[in-house]
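Input record (Table S2, row 589):
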Amino acid sequence: MAVLNRMDWYDLARSTNWTPTYVTEDELFPPQLAGAFGLPQNAWEKYDEPYKQTYPEYVKVQRDKDAGAYSVKAALERSRIFENADPGWKSVMKAHYGAIARGEYAAASAEARMMRFSKAPGMRNMSTLGCLDEIRHGQMQLYFPHEHVSKDRQMDWAFKAYDTNDWAMIAARHFFDDIMMTRDAISVSIMLTFSFETGFTNMQFLGLAADAAEAGDHTFANLISSIQTDESRHAQIGGPALKILIENGQKAEAQKRVDIAVWGAWKLFSVLTGPIMDYYTPLEHRKQSFKEFMEEWIVAQFERALTDMGLELPWYWDIFLKDLSETHHGMHLGSYFWRPTVWWNPAAGVTPAERDWLEEKYPGWNDTWGQCWDVIIDNVVDGNMAMAYPETLPYVCNMCQLPILGTPGKGWNVKDYPLEYKGRLYHFGSEVDRWVFEQEPERYAGHLSIVDRFLAGMIQPMNLEGALAYMNIAPGEMGDDAHNYAWAEVYRALRETRKAG
Amino acid sequence: MALFPLTSNFEGDFVLQLVAVDTENTMDEVAAAAAVHSVGRRVRARPGHILRIRRQGADEFLPRTMKVADSGLKPTETVEVIWQMPHG
Ligand SMILES: [Fe+2]
Ligand SMILES: [Fe+2]
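Output record (fe (ii) ion complex):
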């Protein structure tokens, strides 16, 4: 029997809109879920997906991808890569799995919203496959770390993190809830697929795949490259929707969603990916600095994606470009200093050689972040460990839920961006975080940051022990220095030499 | 006498921090309470300096003996904690 070519039947087969007669169009596609932006159904029927794949094709390709990634894992299971890996690399894996694995399942439900409620048949088709992608990503990124759970309690956070009140998870949930769990189908396509996935997941997964291969962790490198091939397909769901919105006079609304999502993604990456690339990855395995990576992926590539689409650069682009050299250094210093509150062991990454690298990549590092690290290093060398830990909470932003920080030392520019709204004083880490709040205050106003919860008496007793219990950090899971402070030996030796000389 | 939370933005440090003070505390006591969480942890002590308190963005420091209760500061408001050479 002759089989038609895909393109001879694809358009017809996925034209599944009809005119409802038993219910109204609004009942079939409730506006809150569909996000029709006041456009008639036939406007959405013009949605032309750039990536046309049929279900049998999809299944065949995905089966091959799974077979590839799982067979690499099986082949290397006895290779003791995990046991022999640099502790900094283990921390990369733990941070990644905890922050990402369950978020993939959440993304499956966001894809499912587009699949059911989008008025664009092409989008429904693409996100059916996208939903299956995300289920696969969730499953793989839980299955792969599972073999390490018996060796290391922190690996359990691959599954556990998403259900906890750990501050980093509150931040991740706040962002993902905002861009994908509580938005209509069209907004999800703009905020999750176009804004977050096109720019940022590309970066996390390609960057990490390169670092993993360098670190000799081929299982992890294969896993995330495999995931990335799905992402680069379903990340294209938002593009045609943006085109329709712009053609129909909805550019401002589309732009606003892009601006909100890109900023939130940037903040999350500054705490997750920035420290990984510039501090945790062993120096000899670093390909590019975080800033260089961001400049290549976000500034060069994503900027083009935006302008090709007919959108503007976000209004805060100058702030963003400046922050590329600053924010993640503070996020690293913060997660290191408050290390008992994370589920991985941060690597300090501040040996003299690493500091030379930082100074080269970020001129002025030693006079700024280096000044704070000088004090920490002295305390570690002196064995004055009580002073190498915090005794209070950092103040966190009521939008990104991350510490409000800036450049220390000689470049001191730390600033609060406060806002009083209905009698409550909110604090933000930047003009942009505050702007996001102001776009739709009621959407965010009820949320309590970890500091708000502490002040409301929700964290008891009001000390580190109470905070750890609130964050669900069990004994054996609390973070500490990845290398057990072995890096301080070189400073100890330097001091001895100085004394002798 | 009541517990009063403030946000400390300490000169030379990298992050805002929660500092619990009392409404009866003076600005010098507020500065000392803020210093506990910055000086010797991530900021070096500056011999010969004292620490002054000002509202974020203000040019003038609040008087050293002014009490929190009389300062008009709101709970969790951010204060800048600034090194100063006395009579300098
Ligand atoms: Fe995914
Ligand atoms: Fe995805």
